[in-house]
Structures are given as C-alpha cells and as structure tokens.
C-alpha cells in the first residue's frame, strides 16, 4: 500500500507552535499519502493534538508551512481546512446532541428549497450516508439519544459526506467496543480504497498495527521519525515513544529496598474497580518508592485518582494504616495522610493567580479549617522554608504562581503536599514537560522522601526514570495490573517488553 | 481489547421509543401544556366561569406584548445568552414613538423607526457580547439602563397617543358574536410573530445555527457555521421584538409611560423557561414560549378572579420557574452522565 | 512609581478622585462641610450616609462574585427584610420601644439569612447556575414583600428605627458607622480567618481547590448566606431612611449598582481575587456619580443612562486590557494570533 514515489496529499514542514510556557511543537515534519492510513504516536505532551490542530486549522503555526497537493496553504479557521478537504473527527465528539442525526451530518450544508430547509431531502440524504457506513438508525432521531459509539460514527458520516481528501480521526476508538471497532475499521478500509488519506490517532497499539500503514512518532514536541508499520517492531515503536536508546545503563538511586514483606503497607488496595481500571491491587509501603509503568490509556492515572479519593472507586477495598477507608473526596484522603499531585499541574494543580506562599499553604490551610488561619508569620516561615528546601525560583513568595516555569510549578505543588506532612505521596507524571535540571531535582527529592520513611507512588511515562527512582514497579496495561516486580530485577528492555506486549498475550 | 464498554442500542420497541428519540426536546413543552390544562381545569372547577371565550380572548389581548417579547427572548436564550433589556427597550421605543406621533409624525413612519431603534439596541448588545467578550447578562444590563434612562429623557410623564392607526390596533375587535371569541390586530400581530419565529427556527439555516450554537458554540465553530453573524442577529431579533412590543403596548395602553415594562424582562424569561426552553441554550421552541406566556397570563387572570393580591402572580411564577429550573438541572445532569 | 501604577487599586482610586475634583471645580460647595448643632453637613457627608445600603449589598456581592457567582436577589431580599421589620414595628403597641425595634431588625435579618441560605442551596448543592438560581428570588421576593405589607406601603413612626439612617453619632451619620462596621467585619472575617484566600482559590480554580482539599461547597453556600444577611441589613437601613416599606421601590436595581461597584473596585466578574478596599472605593464612586448627576439637574430617573455609559466604559476597559495582554502575547510570538481555545 505504500507509495513512496507518489507525492504526499498533505505535507507539514518545520511546524512550530509555542505556548506561553512551552514549545508544543518544535520543527516537526509530517506527511500523508492518498489511500494510506497513517498513525501519529506519542505520549502525553508529545505534541500530537497540537499537530492535529495545526493541520485542521484550529491553531495557527508559529513557523513552518502546510502544503496540500504541493501547494502552500494557510488555514485560519477549521472551516478553511474543511473547504480544502481536510475533515476531522475529534476525540471529544464535537457534534450537537441537541439536534437530529441528519442535521449533525448536514448542518451548514442543508438541502434547501427557496431558502427553506428541505427536511425530507435532508433525512433521505443522511440515511444514504449512514447506510454507507453500515449504520441503520433513524436520521430524524436526536443525536443525544444514541450511544457514544453511534455518535462517533455519525461524526465520521459528517466528515465523509464532503469531498474529503484527508480524514483525521483523533482517538476514535476510545469509547468503542470490539465489534464497533471492527465496524469502524471496515469503514476506514473502504475509505482507503476510495483514495482518502487517513490519520488515525490511537493509544491502542494493537489497533495501530492492525490498520495503519505508516507511523510518525513524536516526543516532547519533536519529531522522532516516520516509519512503515510493517517494518517497525512493536517494542521499537514503544521505545521511540518513550524515548531512550537501548542498552544504556540505569543508575539506580534506590539500591537497597526495604523488604515489603516485613513492613505492613500504609495503604493497601485490593480489587480496585473504577472507570478505566479493572481489579487492581496496590500496596504503598513506607520507605518505598512504587513506580508505575504503562502507556497512555493503561489506567495508570485512573489508578492514582481512584485510590486518592479524586474520582473514587466503584468497588474494591482500600485499607489505610490497616483500617478500611473509602475516601470520596481528596479532602478525606488528605486527612488520612494520602495526597495526590495531578499530571495536569496547570489546570488541576496550581491556583495561578494566588501567590507562591498562598499556594504552598493552601492545602494545609484547608485541612486546618477556615477559622484556624495559619498565622501570617508562620505562613511566611513555611513558604520560605519550602521555597528554600525545594529551591523554587524565583524565590519571591509573593509572586503569582502562574508566572512560574513548569518545573517550579511542580515543586510548588510538591511543597503544598509535603507541608501536609503526608504518609503516602501519589505523584502522577511529576516530571513531564519540565527541564532536565528540575527533573533530576524532583527525582532526588522523591528518593530522599522515601529514605525518610514516606511511601511514594511514582507514575511516569519514562521507563528509565521509573527504574531509577523505584524500589518496586507495577506494570499496567489496558486498565489491568500485569506485573509487579522488584526494580532490581528489571532492565529498561525487560520493562519495555512488558509495557509494549500486545494485549492478547496478556 | 480494553475499551470501556458502551451500552448497545436496544432494538426500537415501537412508536413510543421512536417518538421519544425524535421528540425528546418537546417533552418540556408538553409539560407546560399539561400545566396550562391543569390550571385551567382547576380554575374552571373552582370558579366555573373561567373557560369562556371572553376570558380566553382577553388572555391574548392583555399579553400580546409579552408573546412578542418571549419570541425574541427565545432566540437569544437558545444561543445560550440572555437579554435583560427587553422591558426597558419596549418602554423607550414606546416613549419615543409616542413623542414623534405627538409632534405630528404619521404612524407609518414612526413604527419602522421604533423597530429600528429596537434593532439598534439588540445590535449594541450583540456587539458587546461578540466582539468585547462581555457577558450577555452585563451587556444587556447596560442596554437596559440606557433604554430606561432614555425613556425618561423623552419625557418624565406619560404621553397620550391619539394616532388613529395605532389605536385601531387595539380597539378593533374582530368578533364572532356578542360576548363571544374576538381578536384584536395586536393579537394577530402577536400570533404572526410566534408563527414567523417558529418557522424561522425550524426551517432556515439561521434558525438551525441558533440551536447549534446553543448546543455547543465550539462545535458550531468547528463545523464552520457563521457563529458571529448568527449570535449578533439573535440579539437584533430580540431588539426588533422589543420595538414591536413597544408599538403593541402603546396601542394597548393608549399612552406611553417611561415606567412601562419594569420587571417585564423577568416575566419574559420566566415564560420562556416555563415553556420548556433550556436556559443553557440549544433546546426549546417558540411555541413552548407561547404556552409559557399563556401560563403566565392565566395565573394572572386566576389571581384577579380570586381577588387576591397581584403579588401572588410573581410568587407563583417564581415558584414555577424554580420548579422548571431544578427539573432542567436534573435533566442536564442526567444527560451529562451519558 | 511603576508599582503604584500597577497596583490593582490605582485606577479605581484615580477614577474616584477625578470625580471628586470635577465636582469641586463645578461647584466648590461640594467639598465644604458645615457644622450645625455639632453635626456635619455637606455633599460629601450625604454621600457617606446615602451609600450605606449599597455598601452593605456590594460587600456581599463581592464575596459571591469572588466564588464565580452572582446574586441578583439582593434587591428583593432588601424589600423583604424591610417589609418584615416595618410590619413588626407597625403591629407592635410600642413602636418607639428599643426592644421592639431590635426584635424587628433581628427578625428581618434572620429572614434574609434564610433567603441567602436558600440561594446558596440552589447554587452549591443543586448546582443551578447562579444567575438563574438567584433570579427565582429576584422574581418572587418582591411578591413576598408585597404580601407582607399587604400590598400597601407600610409607614411607621419609631424614633429608634429612624435613628439608624437619619441619626448622628459624634457629628457623623449613624448609617456611616454601620457601613464602617460592615467593612471592618467583612475585612476581618475574610482576612483574619482563612475564608478570603480559600474563597479566592475556589473562584480561580474550583477543581485544583478540590484536589487541595478545600470544601468548595460550604464556602460557596456561605457566600450567598452572607450576601443575604448584608442585603437584609441594607433593607433595614433603606426603610429607616424613608420610614416606609415600599416593596416595589426598595432596593430596585441595587443588584446592578452593587455588581458595578464590585467590578469598578477591580474584582473580576470571572471570580477570584477580590479586595474589600476596592469595593469600598467602587461604592463611593457610584454614589459620587449619582450625586453628580443629581447636581447636573438631570432628573434622577434619567440617571440609569449615565450608569449604562459607565458600565460600557468599564467593560470595554476590562476587555481592552484583555486585548492588551493578548497583543503583548502575540508580539512575543508572532504578529497575528487569533484567540483559540486550547
């Protein structure tokens, strides 16, 4: 199916997008061919969605060009991209549940007679497109009355009802079951036959290998490379996504793990069920760093949020200090000494307009209650000591937290949690997207905290990092726990193999 | 495979299901109809003389301006916005029109001016909302202040209208017989506005885009729909309706008074919500708003039949509004869980 | 100097001073204060006295706005509390008795507290949008007030009651002291306890606050309750000034003036950071503006027009500021940068 000699339908050269605090895309090249399914792979923050937005006119490029059939184009709105033949089905279904299926397909292009919408013709036309997709639903029904899978297919119906040259499917299968995925793949193959270039973004490796001809890998906003799927081993793909040259030695910081068997765990969870995770057991032992390895969508974040009361659990038992507890709010987990730091430090972490000082003392203050205000002098002292201890820069405690760099915001969050004197610390990707110096500082801090008796759960997409800081490593895949190993017994390669193994080889 | 399982569609089990899947958004309107019927039935049982052609004809006559305002408000609320200026704009256009007529301008020229004035207010609100990111609530509030101030600037006292054509709108009764059904030109205007509003929303791209914006402005934009133009136009429609309501209300009272329509914006919003329009936008019908106004008018009539204080009208409407808002909130929360 | 210019209070204070200077130029008597019978008189003193109800309401509105909310029902609550208090006094055999008056005030304020709690319940527990939730009371509240007064304008004669709005203590209007007390109490509660900073945290980022263990629900609920109580006191002051409970006129449009005062004082309608001092300045600015309009010989009924102009200017300045920030950002990146939701 590959036609290397053929000119690409669409080509992005040197794409660069800057956000206030980070470089989201750094000189990325990307191309798509007619009749080919192309996958864009990468972890959180790799720049996948930024590239898609740039390609579909939802976000302007700060540098670089987009060429369509060899001609340079500029999309200032999604509408421009649409008019040029680039249709997108977004991850969160961007249709209108309050309107009918037929309208969702034809909105903006409704068949009209003397300016009056011809509903009958619209329904007939919609039925035609739906039948093409093998979907037998009433075009006059409201979209919101259908399942997400059907809504997804309606979104695709809308996309292909135009003269589509490039179809972008952003995580189209995340809410579909097996049969529905098969149905979608049948549609994708058919479109391929028609010569449509398809961009298929998914974090399910099985699906990528099943349907895609070509893969482009991004990491940290940079291009890692473009490969033919059949020539790229699964394990190599994962390695390229997670980033690390094979065979490199890992200097371990936690060489002498306490034996978990001797110490009773501070937090022990059994059979945890929650949206996105299925029957997982976890033990957080004092003085130990528990690494969690897994790809995006493996359930690693969901697990962290479930046991810390952020999302709660649907079934299972959580024992904290030996007593069964079921925190339903972070507040309750905090009062039990279990604290959580989100992977989204900007949206779910810092309070950007409050000062560094107020951010550091926020959780402690919330815990003490409204009436027991931390005395101003004590607050300043606290802030100063944490700024000093974690080397937060700039060190002015009155500066607004939103002005800090990513690494310093992360330290700020750690300071907020550590000020609570917690017993168990759950860190979700604390080092993502921060500079190398701050990263090493945070890794060192984590091991130091464990040495001081804290129990730490450390989630990261970087396997090397997980191995470096952890005593034990949990491997997650598809919402399930597939292994728990002493970090000493693992190498990056063996861990990589476990993380990347196809799901059906369990 | 590890995706989250989705509930598979059950096979359609007949007419009811098909009806619900197509017409789920009409359910609140039916609820309003049921409410109206219940009020009528209860009042009829209690008084025995409510369901007469006279009383029901009077409902349309007395509330003609409110029907017109409710149609405009429906457009705005469907986009997810709100227009607090309608009562004040109605008062101002009424005052301005009355003063022009007092100075001898013919009504054929005055009425278009009044409609244009209303449109200008709507446009101003739309521009503030769309281009300056002002919340609709604040922008229409500013317009409300301005219109009220301007109304008093025209005159602090009421201005009597002696223009024959304007008074004709109110005084002419197309009657089916003495003591029987009748309708005034103002009533016909109100019904026409409802009809046109309903048709525009159902059968034009402008109308459908209004629903799309209310469903999700972001999605509408991604679909390439003319979001900016449509939102501006929705406020203009509301403004024109307020201007027209100014004409009708002036005809109704035979004079213009700068204090006219204080609190009318709240009555209008309440009627629209009771008629089944979601305040978050995207779902609702002009016909529902008409029912909402009927509910409002009937409650008012019932309370005057009871001889009770008219403040009960506002209290009842407030209670109904509360009921509908809470029910809406439950519905929205449930659909978010899907 | 730069620091002063950047201070959030800078523009509000400048606006107020400019108004005062303009007034003084137009009529030098504006700043003159005369002493009669040991009591101070003058335009400025009038502003201090007349601003008291708006001050109370605005302080409550500020707390609600800081949580990302809004309270449209304050005017209606004023009407109810005034109606309750005056009805109690009117029905009492001894309207001049201090005890009667205190009971009347207490009951009026308690009823307002209940109404505030009701608003908070709808917003924080049921999850209704604040505009809508408070619209219910805005609509029904005046009706309730009318019922309490029996549809009439209840008038009373009660010296202690009258004293609140019209009396003088050490040469200054008693109402002014009520204002000061409210300002001090609100400032103390917000800044001496942790309520202020937790309120701001909830207003700026509700989800991050939840993750940090903040009880957002209680804080939001409390904000509406506080707004209710303050509006209740404002209703008492209002009726004390005219010695009549007019359910239709009491607190009419005050929600709008209060929102304007809060915004003028530099608190964003999007919630978050708030300053008591800013709101105080905002209230005085509005009151001075009203006094100016009156002085200009504009009928008080036309005054809303001027306020509309002020509202538009304020929102445009705020939005311009936003544009400025965007422009600066765009300059750092590239010339043309449309706003895109990311």
UniProtKB/TrEMBL annotation, chain B:
Keywords annotated in UniProt: Cell membrane, Membrane, Transmembrane, Transmembrane helix
Parts of the chain that traverse the membrane: 26-47, 67-96, 108-131, 180-203, 232-257, 269-299, 311-332
UniProt topology in membrane: Multi-pass membrane protein
Compartments in which it is found: Cell membrane
Major localisation: membrane
Domain of life of the native organism: Bacteria
PANTHER family, per database record: ABC TRANSPORTER PERMEASE PROTEIN YPHD-RELATED-RELATED, INNER MEMBRANE ABC TRANSPORTER PERMEASE PROTEIN YJFF
Protein name according to UniProt: Sugar ABC transporter permease YjfF
UniProt organism field: Protaetiibacter mangrovi
TrEMBL record, chain C:
Membrane topology listed for this record: Multi-pass membrane protein
CDD domains: TM_PBP1_transp_AraH_like
Coiled coil: none
Alphabetical UniProt keywords: Cell membrane, Membrane, Transmembrane, Transmembrane helix
Compartments reported by the entry: Cell membrane
InterPro entries noted in UniProt: ABC_transp_permease
A Pfam family reported for this protein in Swiss-Prot or TrEMBL: BPD_transp_2
Source organism, top-level taxon: Bacteria
TM region positions: 42-65, 72-90, 102-128, 135-156, 168-189, 219-238, 258-286, 293-317
PANTHER family noted in UniProt: ABC TRANSPORTER PERMEASE PROTEIN YPHD-RELATED-RELATED, GALACTOFURANOSE TRANSPORTER PERMEASE PROTEIN YTFT
Protein name in the entry: ABC transporter permease
């Amino acid at each position: 199916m590959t036609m290397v000699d053929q000119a690409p339908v669409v080509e992005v050269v040197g794409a660069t997008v800057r956000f206030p605090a980070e470089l989201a895309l750094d000189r990325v090249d990307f191309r798509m061919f007619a009749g080919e399914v192309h996958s864009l792979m990468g972890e959180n923050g790799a720049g996948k969605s930024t590239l898609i937005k740039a390609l579909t006119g939802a976000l302007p490029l700060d540098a670089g060009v987009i060429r369509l059939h060899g001609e340079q184009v500029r999309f200032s709105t999604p509408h421009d991209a649409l008019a040029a033949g680039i249709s997108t089905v977004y991850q969160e279904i961007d249709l209108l549940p309050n309107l009918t299926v037929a309208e969702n397909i034809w909105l903006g292009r409704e068949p009209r007679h003397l300016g009056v919408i011809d509903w009958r013709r619209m329904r007939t036309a919609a039925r035609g497109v739906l039948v093409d997709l093998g979907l037998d639903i009433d075009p006059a029904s409201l979209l919101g009355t259908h399942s997400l899978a059907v809504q997804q297919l309606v979104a695709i119906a809308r996309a292909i009802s135009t003269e589509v040259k490039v179809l972008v499917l952003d995580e189209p299968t995340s809410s579909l079951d097996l049969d529905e995925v098969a149905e979608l793949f049948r549609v994708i193959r058919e479109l391929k036959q028609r010569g449509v270039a398809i961009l298929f973004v998914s974090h399910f490796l099985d699906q990528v290998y099943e349907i895609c001809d070509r893969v482009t890998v991004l990491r940290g906003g940079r291009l890692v490379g473009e490969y033919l799927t059949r020539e790229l081993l699964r394990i190599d793909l994962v390695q390229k996504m997670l980033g690390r040259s094979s065979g490199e030695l890992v200097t371990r910081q936690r060489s002498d793990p306490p034996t978990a068997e001797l110490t009773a765990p501070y937090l022990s969870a059994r059979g945890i069920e929650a949206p996105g995770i299925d029957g997982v057991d976890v033990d957080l032992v004092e003085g130990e760093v528990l690494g969690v390895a897994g790809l995006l969508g493996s359930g690693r974040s969901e697990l962290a949020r479930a046991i810390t009361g952020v999302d709660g659990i649907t079934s299972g038992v959580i024992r904290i200090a030996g007593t069964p507890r079921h925190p339903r709010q972070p507040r309750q987990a905090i009062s039990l000494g279990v604290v959580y730091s989100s992977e989204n430090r900007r949206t779910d972490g810092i309070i950007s307009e409050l000062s560094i000082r107020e951010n550091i003392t926020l959780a402690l203050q919330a815990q003490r209650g409204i009436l027991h205000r931390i005395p101003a002098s004590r607050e300043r002292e606290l802030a100063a000591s944490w700024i000093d201890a974690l080397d937060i820069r700039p060190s002015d405690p009155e500066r607004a937290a939103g002005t800090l760099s990513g690494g310093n915001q992360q330290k700020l969050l750690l300071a907020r949690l550590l000020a609570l004197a917690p017993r168990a610390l759950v860190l979700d990707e604390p080092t993502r997207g921060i500079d190398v110096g701050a990263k090493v500082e945070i890794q060192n801090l984590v091991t130091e905290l464990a040495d001081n008796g804290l129990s730490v759960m450390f989630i990261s997409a970087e396997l090397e990092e997980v191995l470096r800081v952890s005593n034990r490593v949990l491997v997650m895949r598809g919402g399930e726990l597939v292994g728990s190993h002493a970090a000493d017994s693992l190498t990056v390669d063996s861990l990589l193999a476990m993380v990347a193994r196809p799901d059906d080889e369990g | 495979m590890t995706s989250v399982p989705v509930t598979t569609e059950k096979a359609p089990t007949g007419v009811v299901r098909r009806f619900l899947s197509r017409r789920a958004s009409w359910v609140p309107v039916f609820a309003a109809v049921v409410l109206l019927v219940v009020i009528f039935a209860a009042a009829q049982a209690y008084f025995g003389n409510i369901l007469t052609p006279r009383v029901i004809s009077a409902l349309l006559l007395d509330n003609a301006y409110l029907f017109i305002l409710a149609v405009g408000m429906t457009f705005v609320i469907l986009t997810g916005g709100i227009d607090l200026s309608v009562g004040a704009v109605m008062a101002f256009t009424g005052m301005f029109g009355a003063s022009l007529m007092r100075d001898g301008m013919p009504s054929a020229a005055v009425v278009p001016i009044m409609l244009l004035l209303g449109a200008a207010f709507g446009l101003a609100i739309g521009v503030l909302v769309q281009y300056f990111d002002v919340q609709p609530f604040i922008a229409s509030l500013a317009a409300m202040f301005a219109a009220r101030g301007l109304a008093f600037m025209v005159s602090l006292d009421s201005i009597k209208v002696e223009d024959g054509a304007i008074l004709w709108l109110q005084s002419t009764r197309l009657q089916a017989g003495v003591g029987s059904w009748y309708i005034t030109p103002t009533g016909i205007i109100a019904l026409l506005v409802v009809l046109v509003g309903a048709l525009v929303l159902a059968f034009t791209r402008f109308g459908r885009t209004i629903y799309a914006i209310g469903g999700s402005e972001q999605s509408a934009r991604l679909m390439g729909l003319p979001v900016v133009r449509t939102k501006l136009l929705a406020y203009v429609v509301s403004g024109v309706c307020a201007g027209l309501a100014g004409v009708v209300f002036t005809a109704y009272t035979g004079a213009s008074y700068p204090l006219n329509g204080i609190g009318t914006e709240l009555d209008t919003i309440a009627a629209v919500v009771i008629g089944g329009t979601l305040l978050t936008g995207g779902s609702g019908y002009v016909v529902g708003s008409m029912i909402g106004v009927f509910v409002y008018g009937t409650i008012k009539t019932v309370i005057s039949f009871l001889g009770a204080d008219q403040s009960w009208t506002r209290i009842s409407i407030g209670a109904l509004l509360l009921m509908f808002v809470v029910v809406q909130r439950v519905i929205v929360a449930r659909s978010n869980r899907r | 100097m730069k620091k002063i210019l950047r201070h959030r209070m800078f523009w509000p204070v400048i606006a107020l001073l400019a108004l005062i200077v303009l007034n003084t130029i137009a009529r030098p008597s504006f700043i003159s204060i005369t002493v009669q019978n040991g009591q101070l008189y003058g335009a400025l003193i009038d502003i201090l006295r007349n601003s008291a109800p708006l001050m109370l309401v605005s302080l409550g509105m500020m707390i609600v706005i800081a949580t990302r909310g809004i309270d449209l029902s304050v005017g209606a609550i004023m009407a109810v509390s005034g109606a309750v208090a005056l009805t109690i006094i009117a029905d009492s055999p001894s309207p001049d008795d201090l005890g009667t008056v205190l009971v009347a005030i207490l009951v009026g304020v308690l009823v307002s507290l209940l109404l505030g709690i009701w608003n908070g319940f709808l917003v924080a527990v049921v999850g209704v949008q604040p505009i809508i939730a408070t619209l219910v009371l805005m609509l029904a509240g005046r009706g309730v007030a009318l019922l309490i007064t029996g549809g009439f304008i209840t008038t009373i004669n009660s010296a202690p009651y009258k004293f609140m709005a019209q009396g003088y203590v050490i040469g200054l209007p008693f109402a002014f002291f009520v204002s000061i007390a409210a300002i001090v109490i609100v400032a103390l509660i917000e800044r001496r306890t942790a309520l202020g900073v937790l309120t701001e945290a909830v207003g700026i980022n509700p989800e991050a606050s939840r993750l940090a263990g903040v009880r957002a629900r209680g804080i939001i609920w409390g904000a509406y309750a506080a707004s209710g109580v303050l509006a209740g006191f404002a209703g008492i002051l209002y009726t004390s000034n005219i010695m009549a409970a007019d359910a239709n006129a009491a607190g009419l449009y005050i929600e709008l003036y209060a929102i304007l005062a809060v915004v003028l004082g530099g608190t964003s309608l999007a919630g978050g950071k708030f300053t008591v001092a800013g709101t105080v300045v905002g209230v005085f600015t509005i009151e001075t503006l009203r006094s100016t309009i009156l002085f200009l010989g504009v009928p008080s009924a036309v005054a809303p027009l001027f306020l509309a102009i002020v509202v538009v200017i304020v929102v445009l300045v705020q939005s311009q500021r936003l544009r400025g920030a965007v422009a600066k950002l765009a300059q750092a990146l590239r010339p043309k940068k449309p706003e895109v939701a990311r």
